[in-house]
Amino acid sequence: MPDTSDPAHIPDTAPLKVLIGCDTFPPDVNGAANFASRLAAGLVQRGHEVVVAAPAASRRHGRFVEDHEGASFPVERMYSWRWYPHDWLRFVLPWRSRAHAARILDEVKPDVVHIQSHIVVGRGMAREAHKRGIRVIATNHFMPENMIEHTLLPKFLRQTAIRLAWRDASRTFALCEAVTTPTRKAAAFLEAETELRGVHAISCGIDASLYTPSLEPRSENRIVFVGRVTGEKHIDVLLRAVASLDAKLDVKLDIVGGGDQMNQLKQLATTLGIRSNVNFTGYVSDEELRGTLTHATLFAMPSIAELQSIATMEAMASGLPIVAADAMALPHLVHNGENGFLFTPGDSADLAEKLTKVLRMPQDELLKLKQASLKLIEAHDIQRTLNTFESLYRGEAVTDPVTDVSLDGSAS
């Protein structure tokens, strides 16, 4: 039991005032932004007061009440600059982050600060909150390898830059009372790359009720990928795999998302002779995304740097079989032979074999994969995630929720 005589402990009946510091937030489209949005909305719906601090999405900056995920709350949009090597990224000037943080903290006077990265906004928030004696919780969604190709650094300097990025993460996260990341494997990875210990594995969570599974047989073979159309997602591996499939399967591929690799991948699809079968949708609305997932045959995720993969979780909530790279956190979601199959990262031939296996499955076996996805996603319910973060915000000890479970409910 927590020591409620400790003045740092917030009674579990008191509403909280939470300041969430983000380097990316909607309208940005990525896992970290989506999680921060769902977290803020979920806390508001539980009666807490939430303010989000994030880079302005345009030149318009200031504090605005915004609607996200069915909830309204203030978002402090800090003056930002466009990072042109990336297709949409905007950032707060690093040497201004502490000044922004000091002003916002003194205005909001939060009970707790929850940073979503150590990069710019998180760095300033952690240091200024620590100086004021305000509890800081951090969630790491960051993989330097995912950002490095959007820099202008020559390749021979990139490994050095990655080491420096992890060292910087160590310094910022050392100021935090608790550090979390979405999966146990990601937590172990973060501990290995930094001096941190005791990193919590807390799923980003998902509201499965928002998705509509369809267990009916499909009239066509349609594979879907959802995510940023960027190099670290290895979409080229998926295109090469689809190109090698038996033409009799008449496979259609939906690439849902936008990014800097769109033109190159369209050209690759043309070169491979499958351009007419590949639909590059660009960014779509939530409703369009859910509709695409409902009607797909299976979901493919070739990325090798996923700390959790919300897109894969959305596909599971839509009742889809999954074929994913056997890398980072994806094996936590894809249980080989239960709700899909894992393939050797970067191996388009192995990916093609696993895709073919699903596409040629008898309906009764395919149905088992779909039902397994629906069962396995139950452990990632967003309400469990909110419960755990509320406890961390109040200074209580927590036991990480078990999310990597087998179909019989036992931890794997």
UniProtKB/TrEMBL annotation:
It comes from the Bacteria. Residues 29-209 form the Glycosyltransferase subfamily 4-like N-terminal domain. The keyword Transport does not apply. Coiled coil: none annotated. Keywords: Glycosyltransferase, Transferase. One of its GO terms (biological process) is carbohydrate derivative biosynthetic process. GO terms for molecular function: glycosyltransferase activity. Residues 216-366 form the Glycosyl transferase family domain. It holds the Pfam family Glycos_transf_1. PANTHER family: SULFOQUINOVOSYL TRANSFERASE SQD2. This is D-inositol 3-phosphate glycosyltransferase. It comes from Homoserinimonas aerilata.
